[in-house]
Every structure is written in structure tokens, then in C-alpha cells.
Amino acid sequence: MVPIGAILAKKRQREQQEQEQTSAGSPRSRSARRCAETRRFVNPVSVTSMLIVQLTGVGITAATQQPAFAVAGMLLGLILLFGIKIAQQWERAIVLRLGRFKTLAGPGPFLIIPIVDEVSHLVDQRQRVTDVTAESALTKDTVPVNVDAIVFWTVWDARKSVLEVQDYGYAVSLSAQTALREAIGRHVLADMITEREQLGRQLQAILDEKTNPWGITVNSVEIRDVKIPEDLEDAMSRQAQAERERQARIILGTAETEIAERFVKAGEEYVGKPVALHLRAMNMLYEAIKEKGSMVIVPSSAVETMGLGGMSGIAALKQQSVTGNEPSRESR
After folding, report:
1. 171 and 257 share a domain?
2. In this structure, are 152 and 192 located in the same domain?
3. pLDDT band, residue 112 (cuts 50/70/90)
4. DSSP 59-118
5. Quick one: pLDDT at residue 327?
6. 197 in any annotated domain
């Protein structure tokens, strides 16, 4: 049998790994958190004050030969080391006195009573970013998708964020992941791809309702990417291509129909009007041969139908337009 202790240890290790993966963030954010944890206890101002007071006590002891000043300097230095605290402009410090909430301090320097008071948290009130991923979540039309989203949130009440929830950053991350899966199940794939802004607004409303009692406001949620399986992506691509080809064929057939209708209407205008038809044919022939150096072969039946006189006039006009700007052979 497997020992229960080993099972619990593995479970705690797995939970710790998930928490680190969810809320660890970038190396810069981890470094900032370590720095904030250090500043809860000591800071450069408190260390400098301690050194000054202790050196002063040692100097007075050396001058007066009374060790009480050195002892007093050591004690006062320790009190200043753990009693002077500093919160940055964007931070608020939660001060507990004997385990109970006392005050919300900062920004800037403030004093506490060592041993009696404790700075439990330095809460960052700047806007934060949490990356959320929902893997293999099913849409309303049962399509597995992987969705990546970014949640922008802010701590507006540092007291609630510490006293109402154990780890507000981790809680926001898990709530965002749960809300994202819930929103995916309510939408079909087409809506998720084309209406990302609407999905982001719905997620923001759901998350803001959950996190508002913790003193946290979700400013916005942006859907960064929606990934679908490759075979489904290929099928959707073929479907879109077939739909485009169908539309292209419909447009081509519609154009052919409209052209045929216009030709029929144009032909009706020439019914019973042979002179108009001859003039139209002569104009078409003239347009064809008016370009310099062009040659058009016309069947004899067409020439007889249009009338030889008309054709002779067109030929003469063409010859005149060609030779009008060139000197004659006799003049040469």
C-alpha cells in the first residue's frame, strides 16, 4: 500500500507547481515580489539609521568610557531597523497588531512597533496582467479549441484583497480560467472567431462580479488567440474555398444573363430599321480600321448587305486620313 503521507506530499507538490506556473509571471515580476518581501522587514533607510545610531553610541562610549551608551545605541538601532518601513508610491502596506488589522499605511515612510506590529503584505495597486489559457475546451457546437486570453485587473481596496482571500493573484487567475471555459461552452466556434470583443466583454463582466468582493476590479479581457485542430482547420479551409468558387460561378452566370438581356434589348431597337443597322455596321467597321496600319478582312456578303457605296466612302475616307499628312510621290 502507498503511504498516505506520500500521496499528500505529491498532491501538495503538484498544487505548488500549478500555482507557480499560473502566478509566477516573468522573471522581472518574480524579482519584484522578492524585493517586496524583503522590504516588509528591512529597507535601506532602516539599515542606515541603525548603523548611524549604533556608531554614535559606540563613539559616545569611547569618549565617556560608559558602555551604557553603546548598549542603548544597539537597542535603539534594532528598533529603528525593524520599526522604519517604506512603501512605494504604488503600494499599500497592511499593518497587523498582535494578529489583528490595525491600519493601511503608505505610500512613503511610516513607523511600526517591532514585535507588536507586523507588515503582513505590501499590495501593488498598479494595473496587472494575467495570462490565461483554456486548453481542449468544448464550444457550444462541440469543437475542441485552445483559447489564450489576457486579463487586466487592479486592486482598488488593499484591505479586502488581503483579508478576504488568501492569494488574490492566484484566485484571479483561476477565476479567469474557469470563466473562460464557461464562456467557451456558451458560444459556437464561428462566434468566438468573429466576435472576440464581445466575448471579452462578457468575460470581464463575469470576472468583475466575482472579484469585486475581494477589492479587485477587472478592467478588460482580451482574447489573444483561438486555436482549433489542424484537421478541422483544413476542412474549414476547403469549405471556405468551395463557398468562394460557388459565389464566383453565381456572379459569372448573373453577368452572362444580364449581358444577354441587354443584347436582346439592343437587337429590338434595330428590328425593322435596316438603315440604322447598316450605319451601326459601318461605324463598327470604321472603328476597326481607323488605327494606322490595321487591316480588316470583311466577307463579300457583309459588304453587299451594307452597300458598296458606303464601303467605298469609308475606304476613301480612310485613304485620305492616311495620306493627308504625307507628301505625294510626285512632289518627291
Report:
1. no
2. yes
3. very high
4. HHHHHH--THHHHHHHHHHHHHHHHEEEE-TTEEEEEEETTEEEEEE-SEEEE--TTTEE
5. 47
6. yes
